[in-house]
Amino acid sequence: MAIATRTPGGEKETVRQKRERDQELLVWPDLVFVEFICAVLFTLTFVILSVIVNAPLLDRANANITPNPSKAPWYLMNLQELLLHMDKGLAGVTVPTVALIVLMAIPYTDRSHDGQGTWFGTANAVKITLFTALYSAFVIPWCILWDDGAHVRIFQQAPVTFGFTDGKVHWLGDRHPFDSWTWLGIGDVFQAIWGFVFLRNRLAIRDQWQWSLKVPFQPGSGHHDGYLDWPKDFTQVPVPLNGTWLWYWGKPGWMPGWMSHVYWYNSDFNIPAIMAEFVVPIATTLFFIGVLLGIIWKLGWLHTVRDGWLAIFTGFIMFYFSLTIIGAAFRGRGQQLVPSPSVPNLDGDPGIMRQISPGDLHYGIVDVRSGAYA
Asked: CB–CB of 195/212 below 8 Å?
């Protein structure tokens, strides 16, 4: 604690009050000794476990035989699970980098000294933590099930007495209740909205969601039929200044090789793929974070910056462990989402080791010893 005093000359100076010994913790021996004892205990524990429990070691790696499913170590299982729900670069590079930056930004944005070094240092910390854990435990599996199309399978297999067409139950998004609304094409608009609301999953935006609107002008080159069709007319939207649309110029041959790979000459955007792989995952994440903070604020629990960060950090921890558990215990052959008892086990089912034939690879299989193609 600092005390402000004045010198005989009237100048102000700050004198730090001397702390007692019981208010201090020295690096040595207080901290280092405890860390050393913990390291010894952990080492002994690992040695004992390694003697008692056999490690699930497999045979030497064989490029011709791969397990199905082939899974990452448990501490990277969450990233492997994340690869199934968004673009690979976004899941493998961008999301982990942004997460680390956000975690590092916490002490620079939470500058309050109240409750430092204590668990649940704010008045509503316990309530925020418990509510966020329950909220995340519901939202995360729900989003994964939706992306897997589980709701569609349940609907189609349910014993309903309506919605039969040709003896089959069709998903709501596949129906066309507005076909008779022909006035000024308003039925097409409502049908597009209906299909979007009842999407099967994230990739349905790219592959299955379809609509058509009559327009006087279409961008890009090629045949124009007077209709703007999703996804057909949005898979090759020209990049501005790509040299082949609006303003034309030849491919710049003076560019060095590395620059020609960066320059977007004759490039285009695949809008449906961007929507499915980037926009939807990012928008969904931000939406549910915003909903979480909004609920906590509405309940009157969000008073400080630390309260907000506590909710976000708890959600991050739940996200980490939820994806790890789902990837490890609920992903079967081909990374399909299955009940936990149906996940193949290498010890109990050696058949998950899949022999690769030359037809499985476009470039053939290389014999590592001889270097020849099989």
From this structure: no
Average pLDDT over residues 263-285: 90
Position of tokens 């215990």? 329
Does pLDDT of 350 surpass 90?
A: no
d(CA 24, CA 17): 13
Whether residue 273 is predicted with pLDDT greater than 70 in this model: the reply is: yes
CB 91, CB 79: distance < 8 Å: yes
62 phi/psi in degrees, rounded to 5? -125, 120
CB contact at 8 A, 128 and 310? yes
Cα–Cα dist 41/236, whole Å: 60
337 bridge partner residues: 331
Q: What is the pLDDT of residues 233-270, one digit of tens each?
A: 888 888 887 777 777 777 777 777 777 667 777 788 89
> How many residues appear in the chain?
374
The pLDDT of residue 374 is 36
What's the CA gap between 344 and 333, in Å, rounded? Answer: 7
Structure token pair of residue 63: 């490029």
Which residue in this structure is represented by tokens 């790219």? 206
- Vertex 204, ends 200 and 205: CA angle to 5°? 125
CA distances from 311 to 75, 82, 106, 140, 292 (A): 23, 21, 12, 15, 8
SS3 193: helix
Which amino acid appears at position 168 of this protein?
K
Q: Are 322 and 141 in contact (CB under 8 A)?
A: yes
Is beta strand 2-6 parallel, antiparallel or unpaired with respect to 12-16?
Answer: antiparallel
Q: Select from 103, 104, 130, 106 the least CA-distant residue to 116.
A: 106
- Specify the pTM: 0.75
